[in-house]
Amino acid sequence: SSTESGVHLAVVASLGVGHMKPLAVFSNRIISLRADIHVTFFFHDTDTNDTDDIVSSSSPPHDAIRLVKLPPIDQSTILTDSVGARITITNIRSLPSLRASLLASRPSVLVVDFFATDAFDVARELDIPKYVYFTSNLWALALMLHSPQLDKDIQGEYVAQSEPIRVPGFRSIRAVDLPDPMPDREGEGYQWYLHTCNRLKEADGILVNTFEGLDDSGSVLLSPAPPVFLVGPLIRSASEMSPNRRDECLTWLDSQPAESVLFVSFGSGGTLSREQTTELAFGLEMSGKRFLWVCRPPTRTGDSAEAYFGGLQSDDPLKYLPEGFMERTRRVGLVVPNWVPQVEILGHTAVGVFLSHCGWNSTLESMIAGKPMIAWPLYSEQCMNAVLLSEGIGMAVHGLKGKEGRVVKREEIAELVNVVFEGKVMRDKAKEMSGRAVVAVGEGGTSYKSLLQVFEQWKIGSLNYDKILR
Ligand code: UDP
Fold first, then answer.
1. pLDDT at 51
2. Nearest to 59 by CA among 14, 11, 103
């Protein structure tokens, strides 16, 4: 509780690695920054991912952090195709137990993942400040804050507009790049999306996992918005990984030349169609490059987030690869099913380029490692991230638009792989971004200062709160 002068932060993560991990990293960061803070970290139990392991590898056991696993929510009773809706509904169903725990432990500040803003009601009940930790970039945040207005201003489908969608203060968004729920305004996913956007505005502040100057095209939120703090990139560093858990991928990388390997991964849930998986395999082979490919079984629905909640992990993906592929590429390639230690792989000197679905965590991890990217966005706001990386920053090519529903051909894949391996400008840009990111989060950097600034607010808030209690 907040009876001592310190700050007691309750942090609420959402379902999904891409939401839990960054909030765990943030919690870990804030307790290592200041001694007068402690965190109660709430996260969801799933039977598909080893959540305990993820949380503890992000936040080493520490007196200042208490982990609370929310009781499992039966996912089979949530009937929706929308990833965002599923995450939000899971959070809402967890509210009673979260509320009971918060009322008992009486934190002085609440920080939630952006899908967990319904917990703001409990913060009101406790009369404590409520913040959001936003696990993507400022442009995506600006769009979300502006979406309720767009909903009023624009008639008909967004994707049917003749002009790109305007976001005041930021670059406009082409129809093909709109995040998942927006292309279908009649869909249930869109209604939940609007709900999330509206509740974001209630926050007393929003911490964003990005840094000042990441994208020069936009930095000021023009629509009425809560105060925003750019505190990133906060990602788990490779050195925090326990040394006795060295993965076979890393051993394989040890024997490859510097910057020679293409790392291919679609995040925690990305999947491809069968046809696309075949084209990717041939494309990798045609490129003549070495590769490390995290391969999932294909899905009938095509490129999607079907594995996001862990549904497909039992099937063997290797049996879907073209005949003879494994033998022909044995000397240059390694195919692994499902899951690898990504931060460690990106940090390995043998990795030269990252072919990625551009989830924001993967994006930041590639940036910190200084590795240029091939953008293959699949779902959520990943197309916007791809645009940011290619047109905004210049450390990626964005030739592979999986979202347009077409199959990307092997020749195209092979060519892009070679373009990025030979692209000195992109490589230099990625290294430059790495340097800037490290400076931003380092002592005295802009993100470091922002985080201390929020902390001071929390501290003042806690003092007032103590007074009220007395
Ligand atoms: N990740 C990993 N190993 C894998 C796949 C993913 O460690 O095989 C991690 C990755 O490093 C990142 C997170 O899972 O931190 C995925 O988050 P991201 O935002 O990139 O994508 P999402 O999975 O949410 O779409």
1. 64
2. 11
Q: Specify whether the CB–CB gap between 448 and 455 falls below 8 A.
A: no
Give the atom of ligand 1 at the shortest distance from the alpha carbon of 305: 25
DSSP element (H, E) containing 356: strand 351-356
Q: How far is CA 328 from CA 285, 292, 381, 414, in A?
A: 8, 15, 36, 16
Extract the tokens encoding 447: 């993100």
Q: Confirm or reject: Cβ of 362 under 6 Å from ligand 1.
A: yes
Q: What is the pTM of this model?
A: 0.94
Whether a cis peptide bond, with omega within 30° of 0, leads into 233 is yes
The Cα–Cα gap between 402 and 57 comes to 32
What is the DSSP-derived secondary structure letter of residue 390? I
Position 458 scores a pLDDT of: 94
Write the residue with the smallest CA distance to atom 21 of ligand 1.
359
- The mean pLDDT values, 10 residues at a time, for the chain of 470 residues are 72 92 93 91 74 66 85 90 92 98 97 98 97 97 95 96 94 93 95 97 96 78 83 82 72 97 93 93 98 90 65 74 96 91 95 97 98 94 96 90 75 96 97 97 96 93 55
Q: What 3-state class would DSSP assign to 267? A: coil
Distance from Cα 55 to the centre of ligand 1, integer Å:
13
Query: With a 6 A CB cut-off, is 84 part of the ligand 1 pocket?
Result: no
- Of all protein residues, whose CA lies closest to atom 15 belonging to ligand 1? 361
Name every residue whose Cβ is closer than 8 Å to that of residue 75 and which is 6 or more positions away in sequence. 46, 86, 90, 309
For residue 388, what are the contacts with CB-CB under 8 A and spacing of at least 6? 137, 139, 214, 215
Which residue is it, tokens 């939630």? 112
For ligand 1, atom 13, name the residue with the nearest CA. Answer: 18
d(CA 417, CA 414): 5
Q: What pLDDT is recorded for position 2? A: 42
Rounded CA separation 158/156 (Å): 6
Whether residue 137 has its Cβ less than 6 Å from ligand 1: no
Cα separation, 173 vs 139, in Å, equals 10
Q: How far is the CA of 352 from the centre of ligand 1 (A)?
A: 18
Query: Ligand 1: does its nearest atom lie under 6 Å from the Cβ of 361?
Result: yes
Check residue 253 and give its pLDDT. 97
CB of 365 shorter than 6 A to ligand 1: yes
Alpha-carbon 35 to chain mean position: 28
Ligand 1 pocket residue status of 367, Cβ below 6 Å: no
**Does the beta carbon of 382 lie inside 6 Å of ligand 1?**
no
**336 in contact with ligand 1, CB cutoff 6 A:** no
Determine contact, residues 407/378, Cβ cutoff 8 Å. Answer: no
From the CA of 342, give the closest atom in ligand 1: 7
